[in-house]
Specification:
Four copies of one chain form a homotetramer.
Chain A lengths: L14 E17 L3 E15 L9 H8 L5 E2 L3 H11 L5 E14 L6 E14 L5 E14 L1 H6 L6 E12 L5 H10 L3 E2 L6 H13 L4 H14 L3 E10 L7 E7 L10
Parallel strand pairs in A: 1-3
Antiparallel strand pairs in A: 1-2, 2-4, 4-5, 5-6, 6-7, 6-8, 7-9, 9-10
């Protein structure tokens, strides 16, 4: 049977990334409280393609992903990348895995238990057989209460749900739970799925006592991250779903531009 | 050339609706302040199909839509429906048009001008050549401040952006602007795109002085709508993007189930 | 502490549905091949509210959901509904659970294994302590190849990814896997995550040999469902992401309007 | 009234970008066929913030946007950026405007007219009062037919809707229409909103005669763009909504990494 993909290409255009995306797959992630957590990922996988090949072999991405069984264990990411390089005869390999992540929390006063959802991601690049660049991303929802609104108003202060995305590169493993704590401690208040009346009084007053602009939120995160010796790079983006506007406020801080190798 | 669509079908299954959806198109809508407003719609069009025909002729939906020029004028909806019935040899014809809609507003204190966006929709059904059922839908974003949080807390009260969708059938034309006023008057405060400090103080205090649950919001809308003699039917759905949770609160009130004819 | 929700309301507006939505939660679903499957759901829960109460107690929805542990087992849906009625002092209770669902499939020729994703939903209503209305929904992606394009063209035929949503009420339990089989057998070809060259030849020719309009797709499903004695009601909606247009074609067949009680 | 934003900040964290996003606004764009086109944009605006200021003044973004009237004319983008720098006392200013864009097309055989939608974007950065970096982005939907499927199959070939996003920096103005032509000429066939039977035969056979992998699509675009003397930089990303899988194939080519100044 003809192998169109392996035919010669004469246009002289190297492809930076070619692969699959939007692939939903069950995965198992390491979890600080329960050792492992079952969840569902959306996955992208890609390699580079030299200018002289017509196409890549897309089915091999799926084969590499499935090699370790029906459920992907994220500890296998380095192996997956190295197998991609080998099976697809590529120099560069890339994987991006996004998934909801759940933590059980106790309400601040009544200690009622509830499960709260976050979004996490693993983004990894292999440039050769040894060097893997790994980025952990975590998005946490929080409460933000406006310092200006509080300062100028006789009563009340507008507040809203906000979202904090933190991307990190580190010298040692960092838990998703650690990043979540940084995000939640940097906001006016953290969120809960279950709050009884005593808890609602607490979170209302706690947010009122800790107003933050979206600028304060990203700075509070940055201050915490730069104290952490394991941290090599971070990028923090916060967004407030303003309760007084129909648009959002946002802010971004990056530790320093990452000296990324050109993805070939 | 073969006409597959017109072939006989023997499965004995009448099709309730068949057509096109996800069609983006420029439209012109009537506007209370500027006479007309240019915007961009997402359109669905459908007809029924008797059990003995294999298929409908999809290109005719687009021909009917284009008949009146490059831009669709919404006053032509009844004509469009009747042409669909005729051109597609159908008894039942249906169109749904959704679009962003803009209103210029003045800030409450400084009177600074800004443009605020809403979403509106026209949903129309023709069951025969005379009877057209027309539903106007408007989604407005608003502020909601929690009455419970205010009552039990020593200071502050959680508030958030909420969304109110109002669907109406009426005996006389109702303006999109009228429905928006009903939604905004029923919430803790309306939204603005531009607020200077004096305005922000006003909206903060106004929301604090007018707390509403999501239940209050739909009831306030219902009370206003049932006083309006033009109103034949309404359905109100409100959703709060809770600032203390990562899930939303919602409520629905319908005036009474609409005696809809089966769409054949 | 004040209980605002329990205060009297004098507006005289009964609320049809009030509750929470957009709640992400880990769940366990029954799975034909592996007995159970871990996945992640988006959940809505609601009750009715008599006209004389100001508000419902939103935290109780979460308490009911959490009662059976950190992960929701879908077998508990009837219990969850009855507890909602009791704890929230409501006549009507409603839950909607949507989640991705995975099946391992073998490629048609090489028998290579891969995991394919679907979307499923459980929608349940309790009107009193005995009668629970349960709707199973399954969305499957498929290939559709256009019969008209094939008939009129000298070579080739346009085809595309399509989506089939099937909602059913049945007298006995139906497996998600059974509904998926009906959807896939009704299309031009089913989808796979992993196809080697021999498989790709097979699915290309199989689709070419089995052209279906979006109308054929919903009818093929309807014909299969009405032969199933367990089936009490169904609604089928198919949508083709047309490869020759930037809009979609769709069709809907409903067995007969369901005699739904007013959601009281 | 207190000006919280202007207070001193001692955390020592410069903010790379702070501003508003998700702002919907009516705009007018230059159009090759009709001189100007009314459409609806989603806008983000941001500036940098030195480490010693607590916050930026969000309302000023909206004031700058509104300065030129109720509808934004995109020719004013350089002025808008320079005003942002001035009013917000910033060194760096950024704006991103995304909008649907419409072109009237004639069907290839019957010459029937229809309107087709694209998505376009303007992304601009001002680093000082003179240097404005401007990126034009255009996303076009197209047909792609698989060369491998065609080569190995006895009849037919799988095809699907694909999407091509082209980002460019150029030394002279480039029309949105020019970029669309490049994208459409690089695919198996272009899309139309209205196709009669004779047209459908043409597009089916034309796609079958011009198979392209997603790799071919980005390379065909790159070959065309690098011949254009006005072009200083480009990035092309194509995505195929595979008709035989439930995931997508994608490819990316960038002319060369852009020597972006750190956004300060």
């Amino acid at each position: 049977m003809q192998d169109k993909q392996s035919e010669k290409d004469i246009r002289g255009v190297r492809i930076d990334r070619v692969g699959v995306k939007g692939l939903r797959h069950p995965i198992i992630v390491r979890d600080l409280a329960h050792k492992k957590q079952n969840t569902v990922a959306t996955i992208a996988m890609a390699v580079d393609l030299p200018h002289h090949f017509k196409g890549t072999h897309m089915s091999r991405f799926i084969e590499v992903l499935n090699r370790h069984g029906r459920i992907v264990h994220v500890e296998n990411i380095p192996d997956i990348l190295l197998e991609m390089r080998k099976r697809l005869e590529a120099e560069y390999a890339h994987i991006h895995i996004e998934f909801p992540y759940f933590i059980e929390k106790k309400a601040p006063v009544t200690k009622s238990k509830g499960v709260l959802d976050y979004s996490a991601s693993f983004t990894a690049h292999a440039y050769d057989s040894k060097n893997i660049d790994f980025v952990l991303g975590v998005t946490s929802s929080v409460t933000t209460l406006c310092p200006c609104s509080k300062a100028i108003s006789m009563r009340g202060a507008h507040n809203q749900r906000g979202s904090v995305n933190i991307q990190t590169r580190s010298s040692k493993t960092i838990w998703i739970e650690e990043i979540i704590k940084v995000a939640e401690a940097s906001a006016s208040c953290e969120l809960y799925s279950l709050l009884k009346r005593g808890d609602e009084k607490f979170v209302t007053e706690h947010a009122y006592d800790n107003p933050v602009f979206v600028e304060d939120l990203v700075r509070n995160v940055a201050v915490r991250l730069r104290k952490d010796k394991r941290m090599k790079w971070y990028r923090v983006e916060a967004e407030n779903f303003e309760s007084i506007h129909n648009h959002n406020a946002f802010a971004i801080v990056e530790s320093a531009p990452w000296p990324a190798r050109k993805s070939r």
